[in-house]
Amino acid sequence: MITKLIEEFVVHLRAQRYSEKSIKTYRSHLCYFLNLFYEYEPENLTSKQLEDFIIWLIEKKKIGESYQKAIIGVITKFYKELLQKDIDLKHLYPQKKEIKLPNFLMREEVKKLLEVTENLKHRTILTTIYSCGLHLREVLNVRLTDIKIKEKIILIKEIRYKKERTITLSDKLLNLLKEYKIIYRPAIYLFEGQNGEKYSERSVQQIFQNSLEKTGITSIATVCTLRHSYAIHLLENGIDIKTIQELLGHRNITTTKIYLQIMDTFKEKVRSPLDLL
């Protein structure tokens, strides 16, 4: 009986042109569900039993949010399309978490942060992160061959997605990089540790915190705050959101649009000049 129901469900999915990968996942979830309730006819299961099943998975099996969404979706689809029975399990979907807006520094604060970073290597690392809007791991993965001085660009390789993006180097950063390379003479990576290996993330984080402390800035900030500040400052300069998405390497523009929310929040706090008269 169970096998027949599962195969009928698979036929429906194929008719709806689901990918084989999706069908395999749906089949696995449905098989798990039906086998747990093998003593019951699926159409006779009550909403309370289905609800208890989902809660059991969450509390006892410690399933993640993605699995929770998937199993609810499969059960709902199974009942609707095979048993012609509408069941409402929407209240069991994970609630959307409130989006926490990232912190950023004002232009004057970034300037002060870089100025108090006296060590040339340290200042060059922080300046590169801010000037190019890089993740910490990205700046530490930059090789000398990724810097194209004549073209004034830097190639950022996104290993995860096997892609690369191009970012224009500012004249200020170019001059700083030239000075840095003359003094430190890196061999492979742009920023190297004492033995020629990649500079460590922990060291950069400590550099940032030391400089932040020197500035007296009380805002909560990390190395990643420089990347967020880069995006906000581009928006303030009138750069369109699509361009910023490409510069940051976001796959989904929704991720980039969070900076628009920050701008809206910031604008709400701006007082009218009339109030200052």
TrEMBL record:
Listed GO MF terms: DNA binding
Where would I find the Tyr recombinase domain in this sequence? 100-275
- The residue ranges of the Core-binding (CB) domain are 1-83
User: Mind telling me which InterPro entries this protein's record contains?
Assistant: CB, DNA_brk_join_enz, Integrase-like_cat_sf, Integrase_catalytic, Integrase_recombinase_N, Integrase_SAM-like_N, Tyrosine_recombinase_XerCD
Which terms does the UniProt entry file under GO BP?
Answer: DNA integration; DNA recombination
Enumerate the UniProt keywords alphabetically: DNA integration, DNA recombination, DNA-binding
Q: Which PROSITE patterns match?
A: CB, TYR_RECOMBINASE
Identify this protein by name.
Answer: Site-specific recombinase XerD
Highest classification ranks of the organism: Bacteria, Pseudomonadati, Bacteroidota, Flavobacteriia, Flavobacteriales
